[in-house]
Amino acid sequence: MEIINKSSISLLEMLSISCCASLTCIFSKGQFPASLKHLKIEDCSELTILSPRDLLPEALEVLVIKYCPKLESIAERFLNNTSLRCIEFVSCKNLKSIPAGLHNLIHLSDFSIFDCPSLVSFPEEGLPKTNLEILYINVCEKLRALPNHLHDINSLYLLYIQRCPSITSFPQDGFSTNLTDLYIEGLNIYKPQVGWGLHNLTSLTYLSIEGCSEVESFPQEEIGMMLPPSLKHLTIRSFPKLKYLFPNGFQNLTSLESLFISNCPNLTSFPEVGLPSSLLRLSINDCPLLKKQCKRDKGREWSKIAYIPSVYMDGKFIYD
């Protein structure tokens, strides 16, 4: 089934298609109208290609494709698509590659990929270096490597990498030191990032680390791991073997305002020197041993957190 093939659409600027179960191609006998700026396709279970000419319109600014499980390719390459500002691919289960020429999208500011388990790699040239601000890579199970040249993207401030277990290589120069928000999950990302040095991210204010099954101390004492003093918000989640928080790693966090610790069943205590005095909010979830030691006015660790205005244990405000 073809949905559009009429000359009257030559001035079309916005096109949204959803829930077309029999749609296999958007423009089967031609190409996209040159005027098209916004293209959104959602819940088209039989869609396999966008256009046989394999080119996107030059005026395109926003490209969103969601829940199209048979779509294998977006286009052969981004050719003269420098107007693109936002790209989002969600649950395109069969998508294997990103078009070449991605690095030429000089106005791209937001690039998100969610649940594309067949994606193997990014184009060799990497990502655009001028205006990219947000990069989400989530649930890409076959992705082998992060994009090249991440360190050179000075505009990037938010980086989210989660559930990409096949990534085996890490950018040699690490991430851009202008990052303010970093979310990472899994030892395959955590270990090389720590080896490169989280403390190098001197602008970082939000850090979330999840799913590090072998880590027993945080920051890791044995390698002298340090966190950037610019941090304001820290989340530690799903460290099943975590036993203690390394004191030296917290002493320099003089700007830390919130600390969230979740699913760390073997964690029993806070650093002996206590937590940063700047802390305003503490949330502890699914940490039964630590929770026991933090009982109000009774627990061994209570004195270390009594000064914090807002403390939650398993979702309950302890001062109620």
TrEMBL record:
<keyword id="KW-0611">Plant defense</keyword>
<protein>
    <recommendedName>
        <fullName>NB-ARC domain-containing protein</fullName>
    </recommendedName>
</protein>
<dbReference type="GO" id="GO:0006952">
    <property type="term" value="P:defense response"/>
</dbReference>
<dbReference type="InterPro" id="IPR032675">
    <property type="entry name" value="LRR_dom_sf"/>
</dbReference>
